[in-house]
Amino acid sequence: MYILVNEGIIPKSSFSIDIEDRGYQFGDGIYEMVKVFEGVLFEWEAHLERLFRSARELRIAISMNKEELTKQIQQLIAIENLRDGYIYLQVTRGVAARVHHFPEGATSVLVAYVKEGGEVRKAELTGIHVITTEDIRWQRVDIKSLNLLGNVLAKQKAVEVGAQEAVFVRDGFVTECSSSNIFGIKDGVCYTHPANHFILNGITRQVVIRLLEKVSLELEETPMTLEALYEMDEVFITNTGQEIGPVIDIDGRKIGTGEVGEYSRKLSSEFQRLIDSVVPSKQ
Length: 283
Ligand code: PDD
Prior knowledge:
This protein is an alpha+beta fold and 283 residues long. Helix content is 27%, strand content 30%.
């Protein structure tokens, strides 16, 4: 296994983390997870754009420009001979003696590695169970930062009751989930939280929004109350790993018929069509 560290690709065995890396001590960094299908990075430009935006918001200087980083990532995929899987990429503010403020002279540390498989697409969509929980996270979750404790605790709460995801509710309104965005469909309208500082603007979310037209759904970027969410005809979550995850119950209450909905299926097929349009074997 190889790791991209700043501008070089090295064997994992010669890689080490400095104890004073600010990512390790403060969670002072950002990350991205990108799917790879048949060696092709999916929605790479969008992920790259978001990575650089996160960096700008936190004033972390990435040592490479977008073109150089793209080349390095493609080289990593080639060296690892990765076909289907994902890449994980993170950038921390760097290594420095432990002070809370931005240390002088630290240079950011970028690392990336690839993983084969992971949450591979299922041929059949299976419905998932979710719970709701208070959104206790900070107010800049639009930045894809390494600070994920609120997310970790929420997901753990879900897992402990046999659910697959936890939906965050802030002041009575649904924001997103512990590691995904959430959509509700009612009477031909698809609702989701607007992309502001209370949600991460998911790349999968953006893809799904583009696909809504194809399945004749209207988009309404308005926060849903929890009560409205319970009453939706269909609910689904989106993220890079899962793409579209149809929700069949929330807090034990059935959503719609309690089965995977028609729109979720159609959107999933459109998503697959989009993937097919970028992979070599379908050209
Ligand atoms: N997380 N919201 C949160 C809080 C997330 O952590 C994620 C993804 C998303 C969806 O973003 P995208 O569609 O770009 O994957 C929304 C990744 C997958 C993770 O942390 O593993």
